[in-house]
Amino acid sequence: MADIKVMSAGAVEPMIRLLGPAFEKATGHKLDLNFGTAGALRGRLEAGEGADLVILPAAVVAALEKAGLCAAGSALDLGRTVTGVCVKEGAAAPDISTPAAFKAALLKACGVSFSDPQAGGSSGTYFAGLLQKLGIADAIGKKAVLGKRGYEVAQAVVDGRAELGTTFISEILTVKGVRVIGPLPGELYHANTYTAAFPAKSTQREAAMVLLRVLTNPATRGRWSQAGLEPAFPAG
After folding, report:
1. What end-to-end distance do the CA atoms of the chain give, in Å?
2. Which of 22, 86, 163, 177 is deepest in the core (most CB within 10 A)?
3. Which CATH architecture has domain 82-188?
4. What is the DSSP letter of 187?
5. pLDDT in tens, 131-168
6. Shortest CA distance to 38 belongs to which of 73, 67, 15, 62?
């Protein structure tokens, strides 16, 4: 029996925690789970840290493969999630049906929560750029409530520290007390595909491959959808 080290972005964390125990029970292996932002995990891999399976945004995996840090040809798309907007359960939902309406809602909100772009999260990096594009980065910056991870963004809304939150829907759904009111509208729409790959330093590739088969079992597609992730693997 072995420890299987997994490094994964937070957007896919719900599915790994849901399906991981079945893998452990069936194989006797233990999962060493490491969750974090895509940027932080990429930095750890580039610094020489080893792992047996990584699950990161497709663009990050492609860069790691190009650098020789992930095995060539091992990448497999798992699921796709979109950036959504949330409010506290029971609170009135502002109009976010158009980019202009969403901009107005952001400006009106008492506080806006999103992932700290300095922490390396994909959603936060995108949203920070979006605020610049909309010309409201300074205004929102004055009332921003930053979280290192997506679930912290949603928790800030539950706690009342922010009126609106925005992060990947799969991360919002892990927090009780908030509700998703929609994806980013129109041309602001943002989706990310998460891809698995075997790091070049993997010492347990066969076991990691078994884990990957558990995660991509066609019977789990409904659970991926319920978790806010559109499965990218075949239905069988």
Report:
1. 29
2. 86
3. 3-Layer(aba) Sandwich (3.40)
4. G
5. 999 999 999 999 999 999 999 999 999 999 999 999 99
6. 62
User: How far is Cα 131 from Cα 146, in angstroms, rounded to an integer?
Assistant: 14
- Give me the residue label for tokens 């009126």: 163
- pLDDT, tens digit, for every residue of 24-82? 999 999 999 999 999 999 999 999 999 999 999 999 999 999 999 999 999 999 999 99
User: What tokens were used for 42?
Assistant: 């990429």
- The H or E element spanning position 102 is helix 99-108
203 sits in the region (left: phi over 0; alpha: psi -120 to 50; else beta) called alpha
C-alpha distances in Å from residue 166, one per residue of 8, 9, 212, 220: 20, 17, 29, 27
Inter-residue contact 110 to 163 (CB < 8 Å): yes
How far, in Å, CA of 231 to CA of 203, rounded? 27
99: Cα within 13 Å, side-chain hemisphere: 11
Query: Which CATH number is correct for 3-80+193-231, 3.90.226.10, 3.40.50.2000, 3.40.190.10, 1.10.10.10?
Result: 3.40.190.10
Strands (E), the chain: 3-9, 30-36, 53-57, 76-88, 112-115, 144-147, 164-168, 178-183, 191-197, 230-231
Calpha distance 39→41 (Å, rounded):
6
Model confidence pLDDT, tens digit, residues 168-217: 999 999 999 999 999 999 999 999 999 999 999 999 999 999 999 999 99
